[in-house]
Amino acid sequence: MNRRTLLTGLLALPALPLLVRTSFAQTTGSTEPLMQFEPLDRPHSYWRDKVSEQAYEVLFEESTERPGSSPLDKVYESGTYVCAACYLPLFASEHKFDSGTGWPSFTQPIEGHMGTKQDYSMIWPRTEYHCARCGGHQGHVFNDGPPPRGERWCNNGVALDFVPEGDDLPELRG
């Protein structure tokens, strides 16, 4: 490859988002009931003393925990997974599955409780998702999940808290 071809290719990188289409919508079509909430407009520093250091790094600095490090990866009881920062319910346990990746994985979130954006940190575009209320980074969604949706919502365990069925959900925080 000559230098001109390389430079032309590098100049085309900013156009990549226009060429790549994602199959993941902002809303998921879930049958879960929508919870009424107002998105929060808080600086990331607001959350520093409300979550653990590792959770803060994942949620508000978009870090990733080591695979296999979260106890939530192997939790399969009935309940609800909520955002570790603001406690917005994000996933129902009935949509959790063992992806073998070492991170808690779900086939779909609770409708309207996630926002998405394109992430180019690994050069190839991925769909990042975050809590629709506090904006905390949760993980990435991929199209290699089980039928019928084919989605794998791969979540950082430290970005979630689990509330067993029968327990009261915590009041929203923030």
Automatic annotation (TrEMBL):
InterPro entries on file: Met_Sox_Rdtase_MsrB, Met_Sox_Rdtase_MsrB_dom, Mss4-like_sf
EC code(s) of this entry: 1.8.4.12
Catalytic activity: L-methionyl-[protein] + [thioredoxin]-disulfide + H2O = L-methionyl-(R)-S-oxide-[protein] + [thioredoxin]-dithiol
Signal peptide, first to last residue: 1-25
SUPFAM superfamilies: Mss4-like (SSF51316)
Matches recorded under PROSITE patterns: MSRB (PS51790)
Domain MsrB, first and last residues per copy: 44-165
Domain of life: Bacteria
Catalytic class of the enzyme: oxidoreductase
Any Pfam family: SelR
Entry keyword set: Oxidoreductase, Signal
This protein's name: peptide-methionine (R)-S-oxide reductase
Native source species: Halopseudomonas salina
UniProt gene name: msrB
